[in-house]
Amino acid sequence: MNEVASLSANAAHRHVFLAADHKSSERRSWAVIALCGLMMVAEIAGGLLFGSIALVADGLHMSTHAGALLLAAIAYGYARKHADDSRFTFGTGKVGDLAGFTSAIVLAMIALLIGFEAVVRLTQPVPIRFAEAIPIAFLGLAVNIISAWVLSRGERHHGHGRGSNSHAPDAHSDSGVQYSVAFDEIEEKAHRDNNMRAAIVHVAADAMVSIFVIVGLLLARTLGWQWMDPVAGIAGAVVIASWSYGLIRDTGAILLDMNPDRTLAENLRVAVEKEGDRVTDLHLWRVGPGHFAAIISIATCVPRPPQFYRSRFAQFRTLSHLTIEMVPATLT
What we know:
By secondary structure, this protein is of the alpha+beta class. It has a domain at 18-172 and 192-255: Alpha-lytic protease prodomain-like (Up-down Bundle). The protein is 63% helix and 11% strand. It contains 10 helices and 4 strands. The longest helix has 30 residues, at 194-223. The model is unreliable at 1-11 and 157-183 (pLDDT under 50).
């Protein structure tokens, strides 16, 4: 009969797979929401008053990323409050990825809206009051830079801290040396907080649109190229659409439980088969920022206790939930 062994430290363990700086990210999100909300009102009102579609586009996008930040903050709060809720089989670590996916969809829709409005203004130009519009565009850029700085502080400074269910690698073992290079690359992707990433992408997209707005307005005023203002809006829409596609692709892959890292999966296989056993089935997926889960079926001729496999996989620091199925080799 098959034997299933969960390689957890305790028979009953917590399934809390949140990012190491989860609470800090939540606080930063709320701080930037307040800042962006104020700027959103100023840009939309200024664009309508002074006739700049690019400025209105920047304000509209500012409103969407204020909404996206609100979504991110709510997702952080929900994941934190329900982290120990037994209804979530593998915890709430993927709530942020769901929020990031939703935010990316909104980002793509806004890109289409901006592009459409800009094309309309190309065919139906309106007068622009440059003296009032340009200072507001610079103010919008400043707010975006401040917002990006506030949001990215945790991204820069949080280390690759391990979850409570992870195991430290053995720096002196030959297997630890073998995989040391791959560890850094794997952990960089494993620790990516897509909820915060979505928020930062919204802010960065706004900053990029602000730059396009400023360039378009300055060229339109200096050279009389009124068409530069809507062209700037189109350029901004293209950038936003590009970044939203990347977010949809990455967060969608996590939500669908795609293999997050083929290199890690192969290294897990090697760690088993170097001892003469054989991996007959392997499932690897991400359950939260910095946390992977795996189910591995092993055919073995030598019955071994779970502690043996526990030590084999100790080097993989991002594995927070691991289940081993040991099958007698004669039955495979």
